[in-house]
Amino acid sequence: MNDHIAIDGRDGVFAAYIARPKALSASAVIVLHEVFGVNADIRKTCDELAEQGFIAVAPDLFWRQEPGVDLSVASEPDWQHGLRLYQAFDRDAGARDVKDAANAVAKLRGCSGKVAVMGFCLGGLMTFLTAVRYGVDAAVVYHGGDTEKYLGEVDGLRAPLLMHLAEEDEFISKAAQAEIKAALASKPNATVYSYPGQHHAFARHNGAHYDAAAAALANGRTSEFLHQQLR
Q1: Distance CA 198, CA 210 (A)
Q2: pLDDT by residue, tens only, the chain of 231 residues
Q3: Number of CB atoms found within 10 A of residue 163's CB
C-alpha cells in the first residue's frame, strides 16, 4: 500500500497514512487525529499538506485498542464508538507513540529531518504533550481538549507552538481557555489565536460547526507557521 507506512515504535508496530509531496527533500508534519481515527477528513488534511510541499503522516493512535479505526464524523454511533476509545485512551503511551512516529519519519528517504506535529482535539492534546515532554521542531494545536489539565508541564516547551482556540468551544470552557492563554503568555515561542463566535472543530473538514472563513484564517496561519519553522 503506497499510502501507508509501518512505524516501529518502542511499544510495538503501528500503521500510519502518508501523503508525499511532488518534490523531495521535504520537511514533515505528523498529523494527529480526533476520536474518529485516521478517517477521510484526516487523510484529506494530509493530502493538502503534501500539496503545500510537506511529507504528511497520520499515525494510528488507537492501535493498542483497535487498529485501523476510521469513523464518520456524521454518524452518532460512530461518535459514541470514538468517545469510548477516547475515554480509555492511554495519553502517556500515546505521546510516546507520537515521538516514535516523528523519529521514524525524520529518517524517511526524502525527509529533510525536520518534523512538526499538528493535531485536532485529542490529537491537539497529544501534540501539546509531545512538545512539552519530548520536543519537536514545531507544534500546531487545534482545539486541544483537556490541555488545561497539563499546564504544569508547560516549562518543558522548547518548540515553537501555534494554538487555535474557538471562543465558544463546547469542550474547552472559557475558564480553561483563559488558563491556557495565561500559562503560555510567558513563552515567547508560543502564539495563541482565539476565534470569536466559533465552536469546536470549526476548522476541520466536515465539522458540524465548520466555518469556511475562520477555517481559512486558521489554516493560513498554520501554513505560514509551518513553512517558517521547517525551513
Answers
A1: 9
A2: 479 999 999 999 999 999 999 999 999 999 999 999 999 999 999 999 999 999 999 999 999 999 999 999 999 999 999 999 999 999 999 999 999 999 999 999 999 999 999 999 999 999 999 999 999 999 999 999 999 999 999 999 999 999 999 999 999 999 999 999 999 999 999 999 999 999 999 998 888 899 999 999 999 999 999 999 999
A3: 23
Which of 33, 97, 200, 211 is the catalytic position?
200
Does the annotation mark 169 as catalytic?
Answer: yes
From 169, 199, 205, 227, active-site residue: 169
The CA distance from 201 to 211, in Å, is: 9
**Cα gap 56→131, rounded to integer Å:** 18
Q: CA 55 to CA 88: how far, in whole Å?
A: 30
Question: Which three cell numbers, joined as nine digits, stand for 90?
Answer: 492511554
Beginning with the edge strand found earlier in the chain, give each strand of the sheet holding 190-195 in spatial order: 4-9, 12-19, 55-59, 26-32, 111-120, 138-142, 161-166, 190-195
Q: Can 200 be counted among the known catalytic residues?
A: yes
* Three cell numbers, residue 216: 481559512
Task: Return d(Cα 54, Cα 29) in angstroms, integer.
Answer: 7
